[in-house]
Request: fold
Amino acid sequence: MGIAANELCEYVIRPTLVYLNRHCASAEALLLGIAASQSALGSALQDRRGHGLYRIGEARHQAVWDHFLARDPELASLVRGLASQHAFLGGPHLELTVNLRYCTAIAWMLIEQQSLPMPAVDDLLGQARIWRQIFNPHGRLRDFANAWHSCVEQKVPQAS
Reply:
């Protein structure tokens, strides 16, 4: 069993987006749907596809640092501030599995670097398209919708 959707949103996704100055209800809903689709909200945090809630592979993790965050030192510093002080240096990819706010920030960076228009908070198909493009190119849009309905149970983040 994974993390309760409302608690994941309230204690991990929302505070991370606020910290990064990227908060909006649509971003919350998108990240919640991606976590539901990739790991059933944390039911299994690691498999061959990648690490953590969002199943981020090591090569993609490294690439987002090398090709996106390296160009914005201020943003890179914010993201690095979410990582564990010593654990990150010894095993940066492990942070994707054990540090929920850090992996959420990296997932958001993967989305942000694509510069895609953000779908509306209730646009499940638009969210599914972003999920498929960035996180699961072989995924079916209905898989995203099914994961949303089974894991999130119609919980759509409210604007704060």
About this structure: The longest helix spans residues 5-19. The CA atoms of residues 84 and 95 lie 7 Å apart. Residues 5-152 form one domain. The chain has nine helices and two strands.
